[in-house]
Design goal:
Strand content: 35-45%
Radius of gyration: 15 Å
Largest sheet: 7 strands, mixed
Order of helices and strands: EHEHEHHEHEEEEEEEEEH
Strand order of the largest sheet: 2-1-3-4-13-12-11
Number of strands: 13
Number of helices: 6
Length: 186
């Protein structure tokens, strides 16, 4: 079973619907014992970095996530969920992230209009983005999208942690294939 973390940020219904369409059991949860038994964890996200981290702290989820990461549970962050995988965010106020990936998240410095919203191309096809903040371009970036004059990390991965800056659950067949590959061997 996949644990979709309930921390009051995100479009969880579309993530749960995508899991159902892919034939995978997923449940919205914040109970520690159930999360620890999950074969995979999804951190959905729409909102702000500091609110997401505050909610994870208030709901007692950070230690649970750290334990799951340490034991090798696959973790997928989507959009804001990807951003909080990094060390620090600068949306409104400087806030420590989970620190699973090196680097920071800051406002996209581009000549193009913000937010970066709509379809954009990565190597496997077009995916759907909605965001104004981006992670540093690090060695953990395995896919990027170009937006205006900026390369945006679109998929990052290190060990059992993966993040998608875009919304795979809203990205049609390309998004389904990305999620299907992540769910393999859960």
């Amino acid at each position: 079973m996949i644990a979709v973390i309930d921390y009051n940020v995100g479009n969880v219904s579309s993530v749960l619907n995508m899991c159902r369409r892919l034939g995978v059991t997923a449940e919205l949860m914040r109970q520690s014992d159930k999360i620890r038994r999950a074969s995979g964890i999804i951190l959905p996200g729409v909102g702000s970095f500091h609110v997401a981290m505050r909610n994870l702290t208030e709901f007692g989820l950070i230690d649970i996530l750290n334990d799951c990461k340490a034991k090798g549970t696959k973790i997928l962050g989507i959009c804001l969920g990807m951003q909080i995988l990094f060390e620090k965010g600068f949306e409104g106020v400087e806030t420590a992230g989970l620190g699973y990936l090196k680097g920071n998240v800051d406002l996209i410095k581009t000549t193009a209009k913000l937010p970066h919203m709509g379809w954009n191309n990565i190597s496997v096809g077009d995916v759907y983005f909605v965001h104004s903040y981006m992670a540093d371009f690090t060695d953990d970036c395995i896919e990027f999208a170009e937006y205006g004059n900026v390369k945006i990390p679109a998929i990052v991965q290190k060990d059992n942690v993966m993040g998608c800056q875009f919304h795979p659950e809203k990205s049609g067949k390309v998004g389904e294939e990305i999620l299907r590959k992540w769910m393999a061997n859960l």
